[in-house]
Amino acid sequence: MKVKKIKKLQLYGFNNLTKSLSFNMYDICYAKTPQHRQAYIDYIDEEYNAERLTGILTEVAKIIGANILNIAQQDYEPQGSSVTMLIAEDKEASEALAAETPEDLDEDEPKKKGKKKRTDAVVAHLDKSHITVHTYPESHPDQGISTFRADIDVSTCGRISPLTALNYLINSFSSDMVVIDYRVRGFTRDINGKKLFIDHKINSIQNYISRETRDLYQMVDVNVYQDNIFHTKMLLKEFDLDNYLFGTAKKELITSEKKKIKQRLKKEMNEIFSGRNIPKV
């Protein structure tokens, strides 16, 4: 099946539809020692620092045909990064909006002492379209499970659509699991005045994912068609323990260890995929 393309419609005035695409991407691994767990966090912070994330979002803007107005990026302590990108649909809008200066945050506000929390990222002063990414690397001190989560939001108004960047975003992260939400809100009108609550055909997010990618993942849909809400969860089919060990090789482990680690990893992945805790048997 070919990846669908969005057709242009003859509209009366500006396309007011808001198309929002949200990703949760997860990378799971087992890091045996505290040193391995810290090394994993350091690796993720380096691999997905604010500079590289900015490059990924810049390519997303290029793919969907948007013009970048402003970029804000931040690497956090002890870990994590955020990037916010304000975009516009066309060059004229970019030039007009870029000429406007948003109000600055209150510089007199006292700064909090100590390390920033990873949840301190704030998105503000955005116009009609934006792209954001936040990363959340963490590890379990007892079970040895380490998890990297990247949250990406692409919200657009007008003709441009975030769906065209789906495959690039999925392939930009080494994801064991991907949770995707897509929603179209508002309405626009065609040249005859008829309201349009969506401007493209879609019955699943999977319509816009390449066959090569779909073949790699187990996929589940939950869709509310009458409200133009679409939800897809993806779990990597292939499981090779060597791909989930950080700082330790499979050949260094005895059989019972390998079995226990595999069970822990599978449990972690299934809980995230299902969205619920699985009780111990």
Tell me the count of domains: 1
Structural class, by secondary structure, is alpha+beta
Order of helices and strands: EHHEEHEEHEEEHEEH
CA distance, first residue to last residue: 41 Å
Question: What strand line-up does the widest sheet have?
Answer: 2-3-4-5-1-6-10-9
Q: Main beta sheet, described?
A: 8 strands, antiparallel
What's the CATH C level? Alpha Beta
* Shape-level CATH architecture: 4-Layer Sandwich
Task: Identify the overall geometry.
Answer: globular
Strand content: 25-35%
Mean pLDDT: 80
Uncertain parts: 92-127
How many β strands by DSSP?
10
- Percent helix range: 10-25%
The CATH superfamily is: S-adenosylmethionine decarboxylase
* C-alpha Rg (nearest Å): 21 Å
Number of helices: 6
CATH topology category name: S-adenosylmethionine decarboxylase
Keywords:
S-adenosylmethionine decarboxylase; single chain; 281 residues; 6 helices; alpha+beta
Element layout with pairings:
Layout: E1 18-30, H1 34-47, H2 50-64, E2 67-75, E3 81-88, H3 91-98, E4 129-139, E5 145-157, H4 166-172, E6 177-185, E7 188-189, E8 195-196, H5 211-214, E9 217-224, E10 229-236, H6 255-274
Antiparallel strand pairs: 1-5, 1-6, 2-3, 3-4, 4-5, 6-10, 7-8, 9-10
Give an overview of the whole structure.
With 281 residues, the chain is an alpha+beta fold. The protein has a single domain, classed as S-adenosylmethionine decarboxylase, CATH 3.60.90.10. It is 24% helix and 30% strand. The protein is built from six helices and ten strands; from the N terminus they run βααββαββαβββαββα. It has helices spanning 34-47, 50-64, 91-98, 166-172, 211-214, 255-274, and strands spanning 18-30, 67-75, 81-88, 129-139, 145-157, 177-185, 188-189, 195-196, 217-224, 229-236. The strands form two sheets. An eight-stranded antiparallel sheet has the order 2-3-4-5-1-6-10-9. Strand 9 (217-224) and strand 10 (229-236) form a beta hairpin. The radius of gyration is 21 Å and the shape is globular. The chain starts with 17 loop residues before the first strand and ends in a 7-residue tail after the last helix.
